[in-house]
Amino acid sequence: MKGYIFDLDGVLVDTAKYHYIAWKTIAKEFNFELTPQHNEQLKGIGREVSLHQILQWAGKTLSETDFTDTALRKNKLYLEQISSIDSSELLPGVLNFLQLLKAHHKKIALGSASRNARLVLERTGILPLFDAIVDGTMVSKAKPNPEVFLKAAEGLRLPPADCCVFEDAPAGVQAAKSAGMKVIGVGNPEVLKAADTVIPNFLNMKI
User: Fold this and answer.
1) Which amino acid positions bind Mg(2+), per UniProt (predicted)?
2) Which one is the CATH code of 3-13+87-199: 3.40.50.1000, 2.40.400.10, 3.60.15.10, 2.40.50.140?
């Protein structure tokens, strides 16, 4: 493989928990208790799609204005949570693996639904290791649509077949598969059955 594309939350950094805290706070406003099981279904999808799903679970509807305001408040809650993050939020083995890829002259991209991805990469100190970044501000279709990964491959100037994606969410795995890329799941094998292979983390990871 010539190119390696990474999702952000739950793959490179441990910020997925902050999304959960923020969404849990929002859900309580609708008298809905957001469980970790619910949160699994929100992984890898955009803010608006996630809010639509929570409203559906809660049996609530919002006007367009209130919907926009609620989505923005969720983002504000998340940004407050990550305001003081640093390299300690990187998941096990991530930094060493990224450095290994660079040492072997492999191309590295980010393919994330997060609109705050660049900020997180900067705060955790790994931004300089990336050759291309595609985040939620650059795509119009959320995962499982393959747009984010196809744009990442384009940013690396590589065909999709030469790229490998690392994902922790079923929607992301499906997106990578639809893009014609190899996909390695990071996390629970039961949740990521559609991935080509699944790893628990990047410790002892080799190219």
Assistant:
1) 7, 9, 167-168
2) 3.40.50.1000
